[in-house]
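Page header: ASSEMBLY MODEL / three components / 1087 residues total.
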Amino acid sequence: MTVLAVRALSKAFGGVQAVRQVSFTIAAGELLALIGPNGAGKTTCFNLVNGQLPPDAGEVEFLGESLLGLAPRKIWRRGVGRTFQITATFASMTVRENVQMALLSHHRRLASVFSLARRQHVDEADALLARVHMRDQADRPCAVLAYGDLKRVELAVALAHQPRLLLMDEPTAGMAPAERSDLMQLAADLARGSGIAVLFTEHDMDVVFRHADRIAVLSGGELIANGSPQEVRADAAVREVYLGSYA
Amino acid sequence: MLELRALSAGYGRAQILFELSLEAKPGEVVVLLGRNGAGKSTTLKTVMGLLRTRAGEVRFDGQRIDRLPPYRIARLGLGYVPEDRRIFTDLSVMENLEVGRQEPRAGAPHWTPERLFALFPNLGRMPERLGGRMSGGEQQMLTIARTLMGNPRAVLLDEPSEGLAPVIVDQMAQTILALKKEGLCVLLCEQNLRFAHLVGDRAYVVEKGHVRYAGTMAELEKNDAVREQYLSV
Amino acid sequence: MTYSSVLIQFLNGLAGASTLFLVAAGLSLIFGVTRIINFAHGSLYMLGMYVAVWAAEPLGFWWSVPIAALAVAVFGAGVEIALLRRIYGAPELLQLLATFALVLIVKDFTLWQWGPEDMLGPRAPGFSGAVEIAGRPFPEYELFLIGFGPLVLGALWLLLTRTRWGTLVRAATQDREMAGALGVNQKWLFTGVFALGALLAGLGGALQIPREPATLLIDLSVVSDAFVVVVVGGLGSIGGAFVAALLIAEIKAFCIGLGFSQLTLVVEFIVMAVVLVLRPWGLLGRVPAPARGAGGAEPPLEAPSPAAIGALLALCGALALVPALSAGYTLVLLTDVLVFALFAVSLHFIMGPAGLHSFGHAAYFGLGAYGAGLLLVRGGLPMELSLLLGPLAGGLGAVLFGWFCVRLSGVYLAMLTLAFAQIAWSVVFQWDAFTGGSNGLIGIWPAPWLSSKTAYYYVTLALSAGGVALLWRALYSPFGYALRAGRDSPLRADAIGIDVRGLQWAAFSLAGLFAGVAGALYAFSKGSISPESLSVPRSVDGLVMVLLGGIQTLTGPLWGAALFTWLQDAVARGIDYWRAVIGGVVLLLVLAFPQGLTGFLRRRSAA
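Prediction written out in full:
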């Protein structure tokens, strides 16, 4: 089943065409990596999908409905979770409270002024933390966590409202090589297990080729390849503009 | 040329470096290897005076520099290229170079915009381009060129290959080797072992703020135990 | 309005724009490089005026202008070296507070040196006559000013783009640490920029003396005008400052020309509102880059221990027993302390957990006070009802202003809140027929059954303690958590469906309502109200209380309010130049305890 369909997406900044006629789809349980040289339009493309930027033309369809014109928080309500290149968590709160925030928002309890936030959705939060192996650190403040653990908290937060699509921007940036693969493996297992579609950008080609089901390559704002890891690695154009001696 | 003796430093209450010692000579490329958070960037920042030295000393050309503010260190001929580039995005390429300009220095190659444009042909094609309008690879070139405008005798490079496309990484390696040929002392930190092998003469492996291994790049290549334990390859 | 009067008003506006531009450009430059919003910029302007008037007597006008400008520049350089250099690393709020302390000190210095009377300056020789424009006389000096503004704009532009110094300034504006690592000596660059900004402010003041007398009130009115200009034009943009100065000055000129000088503020407000909605970072401004290497994470909000709750209840109990032991002045002072404790806690509510740094919280305190007073005096409502409904004025004011404020953050927010507070103050100050103008309202006494000091003390204790308890409780609710979430990471909060702005707006309004309660209590405790109750210094009183106690602690504002209220009471009764003393104390506190008193004590005990 197609979860996300991007059609002929275009965006220009001050006369420079950052993204041109880009189209791709992602099915439930599928991991699509978006790669390409710097300035190829990955980040722009990513931000067009998550609602941070409005496209000049094209369509972003999630489960058959357009996401265009929706604010990021409205897109989240439709069932799209995301993680950030530089982890974004609530540093003054504990790990559990971070997840509780997402749950409170999901259950539309944020306007409550008199209940005690700490006591809400505790079991649900702990269950989510168990899925990312962070249950034992639930009471630690986020400010003191190791970077890799923060990434896992983000993952738990992103999964709190049972999304159908997960957007991950450079999920392994700033991590050691061994940790990178672990994190991506965890994300992949969770996604495949729950039928979540995943779109991620990534610089580390080891991670991309090990975990992605499909790879879409951008160059100069255009999609120059979209296929299985083997197909992309064998693609002469991709080698020339991006992979270089890696392939 | 550059010598760190039992250097300790950190942020707030957290200590990151523990009595770390190392040295680098002119015409030598020394690589600091280690996992994220091992203290590699912190080492460079402390040497540059961006972070206070808590104990130990840093000598540059025999002179102690661990109590000097960054601008004095830069004026002694030590250049610093930060991990996140920190280009002045509102300034043009030429203006970025102007900020880095210092008087010619005895015993160091003298750089002019013309010479730098020969080394980085891309930059020469866009002298009036604003820093913010450049691609990541071009910015990385500019940040190195900007530092070279200070005619340094030694440069600190913080993860020069991070976030670059593989083809640009190959170029970056060529650039660093060219600097070495000019007689510069280069101290760089890396996570990318492949890149480190391309450019490095010697390596220090850092973990949790301690030096765990020191040796030539060739020796490290053969030492699977160290590579596995500290570099997770 | 005829064609010729339109033209004349337009020219008047252009002349006014020039001085406004000088002030705003200096403010913008200083902020760009040092990241400090100089609240004392209006004071530098005021100094320029006084020095110029003073020097013009023996030396003549044209000598007095450069002398005043240079004197102010030297003073600015001294301030930078002696004070600002020590606090570049301090939290933003404390920097703002330190420059505000300067406002107080400069004001009292001026009062001491030149006395309280307005001082009239000479006319400008060579430009003292008038020329005929469209059949009307138009002062030559105004024409001179019209030409002078663009001249300065051009000179600044050349300085910034064509000299090495200018390039370094622009580089440091973006990333001063990196500029330092490239060998740029920031120390002198900062001093130079601050002196230049001060020079521009002093020049603006000196050039103004043929047009209006030097007064002690000009500092805050100029600096809040400059804030409006900078917010509208875009912080850090010299061109934006010029365009916005033109816009604001023209609006003023036309409102005055049409005979609706009271409308000026309203129109100014509307213009600012429209600009902020369409372009939140100003006409020529850009989205500010997130602060580099921003300070550590905010501290966690720990659940209160039973012991802490017990201690607070015991404190309430002890306070309830005070009337049995003592009467008279102690009760009056304690009533003040309770009022300001609620005021400080309501300010802390938005400053701490919500991260909204308001420099105009007294607006809502004053609106609450005036709301209650007007309901009683003009509306003829019973006192009890006035006390309960009056605070709604503070709440509604916060709803209106807050809608704009939550669109900004950091220093932009601080400037905007201050500008709004100054607007509210001006309206109250000028609307003689309704608010009593500068005289204020009198005869605002409690109902007979509450008229004894003891009875009113109990009312105050009940409402203040109740208000504080409600606000604190809200912090532990999902609403309070969501506020902290929005402060910790707006990006993440937005990405999990939290409407950060909406919640902040609600918090701002709630804080305004409780500040209004404090204001209404204050009004009835004094029997009268004056515009001072919503003046900018009152806002800063609130900030000092919060910061004195330590913004990172929940109970800090209580101790801060008690200490400050007592201090002010003790000092103001005994010393003529009490403002300078308060300013000096604030400066010392900022330099000595950047984490506030509670934070300091806590660290001492932890060490």
